[in-house]
């Protein structure tokens, strides 16, 4: 045992646990959030081209400038907010590194950070690592809506930041315009930072619109927004993301970033800079994933699982309360070991690991894989 561990009660990530179990039992892996189909060959060719052209040494600390310009153009086009590529954008080694860096740059011992559970499992340990206190607010099924009065009641003189995630993992919920306006008011009145995790920004269904923190001027002025190319372009293993924020906030971000990774894979950045010039590469993504969601849900329409269609992300919650009284962890383990299908038990993301009898599946899979998975799940 390591003496005085900084994270003594943090286990191995559930994603690692379930992916290993899927491999051990030769199960269909619907647990971890990654596609089982290839990235666009044209994007791979751009990486090859960048390497052949010699972009194999360190990129600038803040990231390739051409890529930062393309990100700035994209956000201005979509959300009508201009981020200066010189001072307000940094390329990161994935969105998780961006999230870690934001928290490292802003949270000190005793600071309180409000998060909404179920929550991506990197938030709480990172806050704890820097001496912060996690203040979880549990969102409740089936719709996982935020009670803003409850949030206001949780704000104290020690509150430093609110972390949001929309589209929301694992529930598939979206923050509405009203949600963002209430967040903006709360953050202004209490002088709070906001960390807006928007990695699924381009995966939104049924005609809904992504309400980015960048869209709301007074919110954008106090927000760090993090995003992921891996989630958008089917290459999670490349680990390329970015963070945007007002210049004073980004200055603090870069103080940490430079000593955490210094810079990020150069040829991949060059490839994304070119690839982003064609906006259809990300604007068509919602239609692509809605087809997959609808395909899977159509196969599951006679199942015993209770399902409310995901509004965004490539995740779908399945309520098994009418199937089994087992805990979600036991149920997910049984699914993997006996039925050869790996999912994620969602209690691990909840406040005090509250069990709502729900598992999460990832539908970023080929239709054949989804059909095989649905066949197994329909046996329950």
From TrEMBL:
Q: Which InterPro entries match?
A: Aminotransferase_I/II_large, Kynurenine-oxoglutarate_AT, PyrdxlP-dep_Trfase, PyrdxlP-dep_Trfase_major, PyrdxlP-dep_Trfase_small
Q: Which GO terms describe its cellular component?
A: cytoplasm
Question: Where on the tree of life does the source sit, at the highest rank?
Answer: Bacteria
Keywords, sorted A to Z: Aminotransferase, Pyridoxal phosphate, Transferase
Span of domain Aminotransferase class I/classII large: 26-375
Molecular function GO terms recorded: kynurenine-oxoglutarate transaminase activity; pyridoxal phosphate binding
Residue ranges that the Swiss-Prot or TrEMBL entry lists as coiled coil:
none
**Which coenzyme or cofactor does it need?**
pyridoxal 5'-phosphate
UniProt lists the family membership as follows: Belongs to the class-I pyridoxal-phosphate-dependent aminotransferase family.
Protein's recorded name: Aminotransferase class I/II-fold pyridoxal phosphate-dependent enzyme
